[in-house]
Amino acid sequence: EQNVHEKINKQFEELIATLPSDKGAIVPTLFQYQGFWYPPISVFKGVLLMQDHFKAQPTDIFLTSSLKSGTTWLKAIMFSTMNRSKFEFATHPLLTAGPHDCIPYLDAYIIDHDVEALHSPRLFASHSAYSLLPKSVRDSPDCKIVYICRNPKDVFVSHYLFAMKLRPPMLPPLSLEEAFDLFCRGVCEYGPYFEHVLGYWNASLEFPGKILFLKYEEMRKEPVKHVKHLAEFLGKPFSAEEEKEGVIEEIVKLCSFEKLTSLEVNKTGKVAFVPEMQIGNENFFRKGQVGDSTNHLTPEMIERLDKIAEEKLKGTGFKF
Ligand code: A3P
């Protein structure tokens, strides 16, 4: 155990000195590793650990996403869908625990937990790009991956406002314009955004039974339909009786923005993905609206990002 950490620390120190770096929004500096931007906090070490040591089990389930694409919401939905026979809605764990306490980020969790000791099916989340997931996960014909994406303008605005709340006050201010320029150049935590989305999109075309590709906007429009489909994909379809009893609607209601934001745990609770950074749960809930970016971006910014999207997505068959 000690050896694994020593080895990773050494690998980390050597690597970090060789990687391209640029400005971060939440942390001062991001480092580009295998094409994607990471903060140099221990989660980056977690990625190295995860890549080197994680062994996929056939029953493993991964929730994957870039930042601010609806991860918190989907964590609540996947946790309550997978565990629906274990809990009553009136005393559900989500009433007293934040969604982030219910499904851990593997990249951070693996640093100081024994993932082998978890009961199956193991539920993990990760912001890692598809190409950076452990090889055993990508190669496993059985473990499942659910990816959620969101339109890049809303992702950027959500990310910027989130980052401004978490950015340490001793760092120089980062304007919306500068952060936007960084985002357009692909520089943001776990970015470039388009490459992140397309990595999972292409993989979902290649392995449709293994990777379910979801869109935040579509889930907002028809949550019941998508939760039903999600359960089928995860091998836990709702029975006719459950459907008649309104279990899907109950899950949707429990995980709704309105319900989760009304709970004390999501107003005052905190989560520490890595020991050096505690984040108030409230930061993961802002407006939960589709298209709020138009209230923050200029028409020129919208045009620039739309154009980048058009170029990046050309010929991929994918549309936001
Ligand atoms: P906004 O900042 O646009 O409001 P993530 O969980 O990946 O960090 O994404 C956060 C975004 O999802 C935020 O978007 C947040 O408000 C929204 N969100 C959080 N919980 C939600 C829920 N239960 N339903 C819909 N959107 C939710």
UniProtKB/TrEMBL annotation:
Task: State the EC number(s).
Answer: 2.8.2.-
What GO annotations for molecular function exist for this entry?
sulfotransferase activity
Task: Give the matching Pfam families.
Answer: Sulfotransfer_1
Tell me if Coiled coil is a UniProt keyword of this record. Answer: no
Q: Which UniProt keywords apply?
A: Transferase
- Top-level taxon: Eukaryota
Q: Where is the signal peptide?
A: none
Q: Which residue intervals define the domain Sulfotransferase in the entry?
A: 58-317
Q: Which SUPFAM superfamilies match?
A: P-loop containing nucleoside triphosphate hydrolases (SSF52540)
Family the UniProt entry places it in: Belongs to the sulfotransferase 1 family.
The molecule here is called Sulfotransferase
Its source organism is Dillenia turbinata
